[in-house]
Each structure stands twice: as structure tokens, then as C-alpha cells.
């Protein structure tokens, strides 16, 4: 299948709509072949098609790995051990593309993809950075305000948790104080079902990543990572 092929069909959304209603192991077992055909296989092919454009047009330090286990595609099975929600499956197709410097004790930026009925998006950023990484990002905002201003110029709202008050050691009157209060830095670009099922979806997703790239590059630079 070429990079301009139809990877996802409307049946992906139909599958997840039904899974929302029947989120149990018995239903999933009866419909496992649908999951493989409509979700897993198309996602792995899509990820494979992304590798070249992401590396050529965005960054060669982004890991794009089309594997069922341990790759870019996230598992549909939920970890319910510490959650009040005991439903066993996530009713969406998801993939994440981390910076290649990722390690268990090191926060890094990455791109994200979520396909869900009524809620499709391309995302990017750094969720829940450790204290040292968060301080580095805040310090770069203070030291490189023009770079941060360029990130904000993209007009993509920043999401994620924030402190109620400015963090200790930072000017409460700083021009970017609301961003210095952030505990994580996440950006998203909304996608439509029509985008997802279009033959041009690889190009659409790469274009969204291109829009998000200045923000992720800023974070990578703050953490001393190559881009």
C-alpha cells in the first residue's frame, strides 16, 4: 500500500462505537478478527508509511516503529489495576512516536495519534515531565522568550495541568507566567473522520506534526536533545 492509500475505513469507528457499548472480554473475543482487520493491521501499515515522511520532513530522532508489541502502536488492553474504571479495553486506536532519547528515568517529547468516534486528533508534547525536565523547560522559556513567542505564534492552545501559583524562583510578573505555571506541555490538532479515511491521511497527519514540531523542538532543546 502506498503512502497515498486509504488506511482507515468507517468500519474502524463502527467497531469502536460498538466496543463502547460492549466493553467486555466476551464481546471482544467474538469480534477480535474485526479488530485485527479494521484497526490493528491498518494502523501498523499507516505507521510504516509515516516513517519516511516523519524522518525526512520533521526529525530523524522520532521513533516510528510499526510493531504490535513494544512499537509505536499502543495496546487496546487497559491496565485496570489502579483505576476505578474496570472496563478492559480502550475504545480508540492510538499511537505514540517518542524522541529516541526516551528512557525510564528521562522525559522526552513525542507525537501522538488518536482515532476515536467523535474525537480524532494529532498531538504532541511532553506529558508529566519529571521535576528536572520541567525546570529546564521553564528556564528556557525565561532565557529564550523570542523562541517561546514563536511557539505561541502557531496559535495551538497548550493543554495539561498547571499550578495555581507561579513556581518558586520565577518572576510572578513574567510575561509568560501562565506558561511557567504549567506542569506539562501538550498541544493537539483536531482531525475529522473524513481526514482519517481520506487517501491523503498520511500527508494530513505529517502536516499536523509539522505544525506541532516547533513546540516539540523547543522542548527538546530545553532538555539538551538533538532534533
Q: How does this model look, in words?
A:
The protein is an alpha+beta fold. It has a single domain (10-222), classed as BirA Bifunctional Protein, domain 2. 42% of the residues lie in helices and 12% in strands. The protein contains eight helices and five strands; from the N terminus they run H-H-H-E-E-E-H-H-E-H-E-H-H. The chain has helices at residues 10-21, 25-30, 32-57, 131-143, 145-152, 177-180, 193-196, 201-222; strands spanning 93-98, 110-115, 120-126, 158-159, 185-191. A five-stranded antiparallel beta sheet has the order 1-2-3-5-4. Helix 3 packs across helix 8 and helix 4 (131-143) crosses helix 8 (201-222). The protein is globular and about 60 Å long.
Helical residue percent? Answer: 40-55%
| Spatial separation of the terminal alpha carbons | 29 Å
Q: What are the low-pLDDT stretches, counting only 5+ consecutive residues below 50?
A: none
CATH topology-level name: BirA Bifunctional Protein, domain 2
Give, in spatial order, the strands making up the sheet with the most strands: 1-2-3-5-4
Number of domains: 1
Give Rg in angstroms. Answer: 19 Å
User: Secondary-structure element sequence?
Assistant: HHHEEEHHEHEHH
**Rough outline:** globular
Largest sheet: 5 strands, antiparallel
Q: Give the count of helical stretches.
A: 8
Number of strands: 5
Strand content: 5-15%
Structural class call reads: alpha+beta
- Specify the CATH class: Alpha Beta
What oligomeric state is this?
A: single chain
Mean pLDDT: 95
Second CATH tier, the architecture: 2-Layer Sandwich
